[in-house]
Amino acid sequence: xxxxxxxxxxxxxxxxxxxxxxxxxxxxxxxxxxxxxxxxxxxxxxxxxxxxxxxxxxxxxxxxxxxxxxxxxxxxxxxxxxxxxxxxxxxxxxxxxxxxxxxxxxxxxxxxxxxxxxxxxxxxxxxxxxxxxxxxxxxxxxxxxxxxxxxxxxxxxxxxxxxxxxxxxxxxxxxxxxxxxxxxxxxxxxxxxxxxxxxxxxxxxxxxxxxxxxxxxxxxxxxxxxxxxxxxxxxxxxxxxxxxxxxxxxxxxxxxxxxxxxxxxxxxxxxxxxxxxxxxxxxxxxxxxxxxxxxxxxxxxxxxxxxxxxxxxxxxxxxxxxxxxxxxxxxxxxxxxxxxxxxxxxxxxxxxxxxxxxxxxxxxxxxxxxxxxxxxxxxxxxxxxxxxxxxxxxxxxxxxxxxxxxxxxxxxxxxxxxxxxxxxxxxxxxxxxxxxxxxxxxxxxxxxxxxxxxxxxxxxxxxxxxxxxxxxxxxxxxxxxxxxxxxxxxxxxxxxxxxxxxxxxxxxxxxxxxxxxxxxxxxxxxxxxxxxxxxxxxxxxxxxxxxxxxxxxxxxxxxxxxxxxxxxxxxxxxxxxxxxxxxxxxxxxx
Length: 590
Description:
- GO terms for molecular function: hydrolase activity.
- The strands form 7 sheets. The protein has an 8-stranded mixed beta sheet. Strands 2, 3, 5, 6, 9, 10 and 12 form a 7-stranded antiparallel beta sheet that branches. The chain has a 3-stranded mixed beta sheet with strand order 4-1-11, with no helix packed on it.
- It folds into 3 domains: 143 residues, Immunoglobulin-like (Sandwich); 202 residues, Rossmann fold (3-Layer(aba) Sandwich), CATH 3.40.50; 96 residues, no CATH class.
- β23 and β24 form a beta hairpin.
- It is α+β, with helices and mostly antiparallel strands.
C-alpha cells in the first residue's frame, strides 16, 4: 500500500523511467528464448475396429501429387516415383499412433523436411508381418504372401487409409492425422478350364524349414485331347518367371472386338492390349491344331516371404526351393497329368528372373533337365552384377574415385539414357522394407537368395543399404554358391558332359539393366570349354532392350508373348538325340 501511494505521487515521466528500469532488471541474467520452429509430422494409427492386433509390420507414408492411381501404387524406380517414408513397428496396438517426422528415412526425398511446398495426397499403409520360427533356430518377421505374389501395395489383409488431399509446407509445419480404416480384401482362386488346371501341394521340405505349412503351386496347360489318351506320356516344359496368378498368354476366345485400344508406354504402341489378346488366341489355335507337338507347359507359383519368386534354388534364407520344386512339385505334376517323369523329358525356359532360374536349375540339377533357354537372365556372373564387380569394386553406388562420386547407373533405355541409379533403387527398398531385405523387391531378393544368414536371422547384406559399401566376405559366399559362370567353370570337369548341348542364353546388347555384361563373361568361358565343348548357344539382339529372347525376326513386344512356342524347334532336335529308342512322342515327328 505504501508503494502504491508513493507511485501515485510521482510524475508521468518518472513512472515511465521506473517501468523501463524495473523491466530490464527483471530479465537480467535470463537468455533470450528463440521462437519455436514449426514442426511437420504425420501421425498414423490403426482404426480400433481391427481387433486382430497387436500388429507387426512396416508402417508406410506415401505422398503423391495425384490420386490416380492411389498413392500406394505410385512408388517406382525412376523420375515418376512419388514420395514414401517407412518405419518398422512391433506389437502395435490399434489406436496407438506412429509418428513420421523429419528423422524417418524416405525416398526419393530422404526427409519430410525437404518436401517442396504444395498440395498433395497422403496415404498411410501397414504391410503386416508374420512370425516364423525357422529350423535354423532363428525367429524372423516377414510378410506372408496372401495369393497376390508378394506385392505389398495390393496384398490382402494389409491395412491402408483413404487418401486425403492436404497442403504441405515444411516451413510452416503441421500435424497431419491418418487413420488406417481399410483392409485389402482376399483374392479369389483362379478357375480351372478344359486346358488350364491349377495345383497346390504342401511341401514337406519347405514346411520343415519355415516352421509352418508352406505350399508350392503350378498353373498347367494340358495338351489337346489329353483326357482322351490316358496311356500317352508328354514332355514337361517349365516356364520360369515372376508370380503367375493363372496360366497367361492362352485364350480359347477371340479378341474382344469392342476392346478400347490402350497405349503401351514401354513399347510405344497403340492398342497393345489387342495384340496381347490376339497372341493368346493364336496360341490356342496352334495348341489344338492337328500337327502341333503335344506337351505339358507349366508356370510355377513359388512366391515366398521375401519375394514373388524363390529363384528356384536352395537358399540359406529362403529354404530348399530347388529341391522342393525338382523332387516334390514336378514329380507330382507328372504323375497327375501323364508327364514322362524323367530328366530327358523336362525343359526349362524363361526371361529375366526366369532366365536366371532356367540356367540355375540346369546347372544345379544337370541330370534332372534336358535343356535350358535363358533369356535376358539376371546376372549370371557377379563380376558384372549389373554394372558392379562384386569382387573388385569397393562401393556399389559410386565409381571408385578419390575426388568425385560418380553414381553407378541402374536402368537405361536402348539409347543409353539413364533413368535411375543403383543407389536410388536400393534406397527405395530400404524405405519399404528396412535393412532386413523385407521390401519384396529386386535387390533385396537377390540378397535374400544368395547371402548367408546373419546373426539376426535375416540375410547378411552384400553391401550397406545406405552407403553402398560392399562386404567382401559376403561377396565370396555369393561367388562360391550362386555365381553361375564361376560355378560352371569351377565344376566343368564334373558337370560338363551333363550340360553338353543344354545351355542356351539370349540377351539384348542394350539390356535396360545391363544384364548383357554378365552374359559376355559367361560366353567367354563357355566358348573356351573342351572335353566337352558346351555345344549350346549364346546370342545377342542388336540394340535390343530387356527382355530379348532370341527372336531376330519379330520385335520384342511380340516375341515376349511367344515363349511357349519359340524354342520348340531346338527342343525337338534335343529330343531326337536323347529320347529312349522306341519312345513315341505325339506330334513331334520323331
